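User: Hey, quick favor. My workstation is busy. Could you predict this chain's structure for me?
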Amino acid sequence: MHPLDTAIALTSAAPGQFSGQTSPAYWNMVGPFGGCTAAQLLQAVLQHPDCQGEPVSLTVHFAAAQQDGPFTIQATPARTNRSTQHWILALLQPGADGQPQLVTTAMAVTAQRRKTWSASDQPMPRVAPPSAYAQAQVAGDFKPPWLSRYEMRVIEGTMPQKWDGADHGSLTQLWLRDAPARALDFPALAAMADVFFPRVWLRRARLVPAGTVALTVYFHADSALLAATGKGHVLAQARGQGYRNGFFDHNAQLWSEAGDLLATSHQVVYFKE
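Assistant: No problem, here it is.
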């Protein structure tokens, strides 16, 4: 089984309730890789027997540090309309007293997609194919396990070579896919939307503590487009926007090798001086 499929494997524990386990393969510095948590939450929606349609959006709020071990996801279809379905999700873990404690909350929208006029105001940047770029190798001691779960070929905006506090641009572009290669689906795409290092690290060349507070992913691809993308690379791009009083945000885009916009995302990150 692919490491991602192992990580997002959920067992139905009760109506609308799923049990899972954190994955060492997707561990970050002090907790799970946030993209994996997003994928697990989305998987709960997709696995729910009442789910209708395909994902349109997912918003995850990381309320507390998730610990290594079992967790429970509660997935509730709050309202089902003619074409859209709105979900409320909560991820819980046992606290010190053994009682369930809220760790992460999320909202999702699924919809019955209909064929309509389509276009994109975010054309894929003109870059060379993945084979033109070397696979990234992380230097130094910063090697959280989740990095090994992706093949990354950086075009622009790698980690600073010197942590000297100098001003730099925050743009990152890279070719990306699961390692080992895996056919793209919605949970994998949700996880990929969170692969970017904190923009403040690039912007200031300072390795300050930082963590995602909220992540939203908008899915522009349907299942047919994801199937056409298959195990191919995804071009991922992110750029910071505003930095102020301990928080910053960035937006991101992900395209298929064929140039189709698969998803866009936006996240807010806490950082400490």
